[in-house]
Write a structure and sequence with these properties.
Layout: E1 2-6, E2 9-12, E3 17-24, E4 33-38, E5 45-50, E6 56-58, E7 66-71, E8 76-81, E9 90-96, E10 105-110
Parallel strand pairs: 2-10
Antiparallel strand pairs: 1-3, 3-8, 4-5, 4-9, 5-6, 7-8, 9-10
Length: about 110
C-alpha cells in the first residue's frame, strides 16, 4: 500500500506545475484524498481535498489558483497549480483518507 507523488520542481513566479499522486494497494475510488504542504520551518497545512464523489475544497491561500482532481481509472490524484507564488514553495504530500501519506515532492517557486 503506497502513495507516490511526482511533478515537483523549480518554477518561476507566475508559472504552473501539475503534481500527481499514484495510489497502489488500496481501493482508490472510495477514498477521500488530500494534498498537504509543508514549507521550511512551518507546520504541514492542508491545501485541498477531493471526496470520493469528487466534491472539492481548498485553503483560502490557494483558492482560485489550484485545482484538485482525480482519475479513478488510473488510481491517480492530481493538483494543478497555476499562478504560483514564492510562498507556495514547500514539500507537497498526498494523503489518503484512512491516513496513508506519500513521501512528498518538492516545489520551489522563484521570484
Amino acid at each position: 500500500v503506497q502513495l507516490v507523488e511526482s511533478g515537483g520542481g523549480l518554477v518561476q513566479a507566475g508559472g504552473s506545475l501539475r503534481l500527481s499522486c499514484v495510489a497502489s494497494g488500496m481501493v482508490f475510488r472510495i477514498e477521500d484524498m488530500h494534498w498537504y504542504r509543508q514549507a521550511p520551518g512551518k507546520q504541514r497545512e492542508l491545501v485541498a481535498i477531493i471526496t470520493s464523489s469528487s466534491n472539492t475544497d481548498y485553503s483560502d491561500s490557494v483558492k482560485g489558483r489550484f485545482t484538485i482532481s482525480r482519475d479513478n481509472a488510473k488510481n491517480t490524484l492530481y493538483l494543478q497549480m497555476n499562478s504560483l507564488k514564492p510562498e507556495d514553495t514547500a514539500v507537497y504530500y498526498c494523503r489518503a483518507g484512512f491516513g496513508l501519506w506519500g513521501q512528498g515532492t518538492r516545489v520551489t517557486v522563484s521570484s
